Amino acid sequence: MSEKGKGLNLVWYLLILLTVFLWGMSFLWSDRVLDRQVPVFTFIFTRMIIAAAALSLFSLLTGHFQRIRKGDFKWFAAMTAFEPFLYFLGETFGLQFTDSPTLCSVIIATIPVFSLVVGWILFREKLSTLNRAGIFVAVAGVILFVLIGGSLHAKYLYGIAILFLAAIGSTGYTAICKKLANKGYNPFAIVTWQFILAIGYFLVPFLIWDASSWTPAYLSWPVLRPIIALAVLCSGVAFVIYAACVDRIGMTRTTVFLPLVAIVSAVAASLLGQDTLEPLQFVGIAVAMLGVVMAQASFKKEKDNEA
After folding, report:
1. What is the value of pTM for the model shown?
2. Cβ of 291: how many Cβ atoms within 10 Å?
3. Distance between CA 123 and CA 3 in Å, rounded?
4. pLDDT digits (tens, 9 = 90+) for 36-67
């Protein structure tokens, strides 16, 4: 690889690290909104509107906006169904029931492992001994984290189960996002349409469950501030970078950075006092992240579809 090529790759790796930082902080910002008793669908629907408006304006002003071509709408609809719809339902309700930004980030960080298991079961993809060991190590780390936490009541366990909906959503989203990038859609267009369509997905549950109880208090600055940060930084900037990195450096090399989200979230939550962790829980995080890395240790170019 040329020096120029190496330099470009370094830029993309630095950008995905920025995404990791923003997504790590997203769990804390979401927790702040939920702590103010904002209903889940009100919270998510508001976030979708702000994200769609900001991305649409930016894409139009910069010339990155693209119309959906005939025959591709089904792919955009499917991508949006996976993420943000299914993913945000899993993440937000999981966070609400567990009340632990760190636990949520740890489970979300195991998404690459979940993807490997799905590929193994459904598509008979081969896993090396190291990959299989990594899956067990990652699961052991999550179990250690949960057991040391000591909050094994029914609602807490229900929240953990719901979080795996987010894992399913992220897995489906990444695969379709790569397909759309290969069809010639730029990252700004992909993410802009993703959040425009998401407004429609979340409108119905908002009208059914939350609209009747909506109050102007949900537009107060203490509530809007973290939602704007989530919409602009985490839904806008981070998703655009992620989509671009999947296209430029490949799916596997992009998702391998996701375990760092849990570390960012754990450290930030502890420093800001939003989560109190036992020392052994940090060990559990480290074990889980080691397992994720082991599970993806063998990079295969044919899986990345790299140029």
Report:
1. 0.84
2. 23
3. 38
4. 999 999 999 999 999 999 999 999 999 999 99
